[in-house]
Structures are given as structure tokens and as C-alpha cells.
Amino acid sequence: MASEDVVGKTSATIANIAEEAKIASEGVKAPSRLALLGICKSLAAGGIAGGVSRTAVAPLERLKILLQVQNPHAIKYNGTIQGLKYIWRTEGLRGMFKGNGTNCARIVPNSAVKFFSYEEASKGILWLYKQQPGNEDAELTPLLRLGAGACAGIIAMSATYPMDLVRGRLTVQTDKSPSQYRGIAHALKTVLREEGPRALYKGWLPSVIGVVPYVGLNFAVYESLKDWLVKTRPFGLTEGTDLSVTTKLACGAAAGTVGQTVAYPLDVIRRRMQMVGWKDAASVVTAGGKSGGLEYTGMVDAFRKTVRYEGFRALYKGLVPNSVKVVPSIAIAFVTYEVVKDVLHVEMRISD
């Protein structure tokens, strides 16, 4: 009997241990699944925001690139309105949205990674800041948000840069180009075959340098403006109510204007460097304003030759359509991101 009692107690103990292990395991798995679901929802919200905002301004995006790279001695696009009319007259509706599929294929993952990276970088930077004595109750400051935005921009840009290069070339080519890229995959394969793997990252350095102030300022200005409006409630804003969509759009517009003005010259240089080595880029600008193969040897050389042959103003070619594009694009992206996160029931906000 004694041995049966021992066996019974041992069996009961083993059963209890197994039950506790099962409960503990389920307790670990549930939060992990919830965390993974939250990450997927956040990435989806960022991707949707990028796709919606970029499609809304696709014609202006194409015109901006055409203005950036056109030959100054064979000008076809002479301003925003004239340029859009010319594209419509010569290429029709499809011409207005040429390259947008490639653009969205790049911007959707880029935007998803950018927003998610910003949230994670914000949490990490704030945690490190709080470890310093006297900062235990600190909140995100504009400078910390700038740093988090810079980190997010670098990560997102590096992850999706080959798509940006291909998008630029697809956007620039016309029906009269000697050779045609037939789509994203064909363009990637052609660049790899004819120019090598390194060609997929031409212009990466000015892109990364430019993305630090651009994305950093976008997030810092947008979040800081929202934070200021919530705390001070100027312009008759009611205490205790959420900011309206219109107010958030205004914050996004201000953020886009500041960011793109600071970083725009680097965007021009990046776009020109991306055309280097493309033997069929005869319709775009070259070093010295000559048609044919581009001759920039690096970022500094591209800056120097652009200013020498075309003047300082050349660094801001396409700024007007870009400004008209960036203001609504950034605003729509931020607001869409927050709206989609509301719809998907994701509790965390960028500011949190």
C-alpha cells in the first residue's frame, strides 16, 4: 500500500508539474503571438500609408524626376503646369502614372519599415536617455525624435534602395528611349547583368546623408507640433479632445516642407548618380550638359560639376513640383498611418 501511495503521489506531482508547465508555456506563447500580431499590424499601417500617399501625388513625382535629370540644352519640361500638360499631351494618363507601380513596390515596404523603425528607435533612445541620472521621468524631445527619425530613415532607405534606383530609371524612360525596361524585374536583371551588383546602390551615400535630415525632421516636426498643440491648445482648440484630421494634416504639411527644403539638393545629386552607367540615358543631363553617358565619379564630383556647369540653382531643379507633392504626401502618410492603426486597433501611437 505504501508503495502504491508513493507511486500515486509521484504521478500526481508529475501531472501537476506538467500542467503548470503547459500553463506557463501558453502564457508565454499568447503574449508572443499578440506581440507578433501588433508588429504585423504596425507594418501594414505603415505600408498602406506609403502606398496611398505616393499614389495621390504620382504625376508630380514623375515630373520632379524629369526636371531633375533633363538636359539643360534640350529643355522639354519648363515648370509644373507646363510639364504636366506636356506629359498628358505626349503620353496620356498612363504617362502621368508611369513608374508608380515600381514606386509603390518600393515605397510600401520602405514606409512600413520606416514607421516601425521609428517607433522602435524612439523607445530605445528614450530608454537609454532615462538611464542617465536625473532623466528618469524624461519624455521624447524634438532632438530625440530627430535622432529616432534619422535611424528609421537610414534603415528604410538601405533596405529598399535598389527599388528606388529602378523606379528612377523607369520613370525617366519614354516611348522614344532606345532600349526599354519592361518592368521592375527586367530592370533589376538588366542593371545586374550590364552594370554589376554595385550599380544597384549608386547614389546610396547622398541618399543616406539626405535621409537623415529629411526623415528625421519629418518625424521631429510632426510629433513636436502635435505635442505642442495637445499641451498648449492654441487657436481655440478644445481641451481634452483629440486633434482633428485637418490639424494633423497641417502638422504633416509643415513637417514635409521643412524636411524636403533641407534635403532637396542631395535628392537631385542622388537621382543624377543613379543614371550613371545607363547607356540609354541619352535624354537626361550629363556632366557639362552634354548628352550621352554620365560622367560623375562620386557624390562630391556630382555636386561640383552640377554647380560649375549649371549653377547653384540646378541643385533645386524640380523643387516646385516636389514642394507641391511633398506637402500633401507627407501629411497624407502620417494621417493615413494613424487612421489605419485605429482601424486595426493598434494601441501604440508614434508619440507613445
Automatic annotation (TrEMBL):
GO cellular component: mitochondrial inner membrane
UniProt keyword annotations, A-Z: Membrane, Mitochondrion, Mitochondrion inner membrane, Repeat, Transmembrane, Transmembrane helix, Transport
Protein's cellular compartments: Mitochondrion inner membrane
Protein family (similarity comment): Belongs to the mitochondrial carrier (TC 2.A.29) family.
Annotated Solcar repeat ranges: 37-124, 140-228, 243-343
Record's protein name: Mitochondrial carrier protein
Pfam families in alphabetical order: Mito_carr
GO biological process, one term: transmembrane transport
Superkingdom of the organism of origin: Eukaryota
Membrane topology recorded in Swiss-Prot or TrEMBL: Multi-pass membrane protein
Native source organism of the sequence: Lactuca sativa (Garden lettuce)
